[in-house]
Amino acid sequence: MWDLTKVLLLKRDLIHLKLASVQIFEDARVAGKVEAQAVGVERLMRFAMAIKKGGKSLQERMDKEKKHYIFVGMVCVCEKYQGQGYMRKVMDIAFAEGNRLHVPVILETDARSKCDKYVHLGMELAGTRDLGEFGKMYDLIKYPDAVPAEAKS
Q1: Which of 105, 108, 112 is nearest to 91 (CA)?
Q2: How far apart are CA 118 and CA 121, in angstroms?
Q3: Of 72, 104, 115, 147, which is least surrounded by CB within 10 A?
């Protein structure tokens, strides 16, 4: 259920969420798991409402202001490769592209420990949204590096 929730979270569209929830319920009925899935759909709907109540994400605010940016949707490193610098390598690619295009790199995460990892890699905490029973969402940003004066001439 978490993978579907994350995808729907990125969509930020309650209408799409409702349509997806109906599909989950119908799929569950066919599989004979109506009761168990109905609880999941209810929780999914509560999660969507918590997101709406939590305020606008950094991505939504930048879209409204018509600012350009690179959005990092999700970074996953298999457990056996964690602690070997792969997350940094992936983020460095995004940061380099942000520098090249002179746009910030933004992302959001749902855990303070993950937020701290991104801050360690050079991002700044741009805001926190309270999602009630579902915890918090952390919006992070990495502005492009300043262009040295000698490189401008």
Answers
A1: 105
A2: 5
A3: 147
* DSSP per-residue codes, 10-60: HHT-HHHHHHHHHHHHHHHHHHT-HHHHHHHHHHHHHHHHHHHHT---HHH
Q: What is the mean pLDDT of residues 46-54?
A: 83
Dihedral through CA 135, CA 11, CA 118, CA 103, nearest 10? -140
Do residues 137 and 129 touch, judged by C-beta distance below 8 A? yes
Q: Which residue has the tokens 């999941």?
A: 40
pTM as predicted: 0.68
Residue 153: strand, helix, or coil:
coil
**Strand arrangement, sheet containing 124-130:** 70-71, 105-109, 136-142, 124-130
SS3 of residue 101 by DSSP:
helix
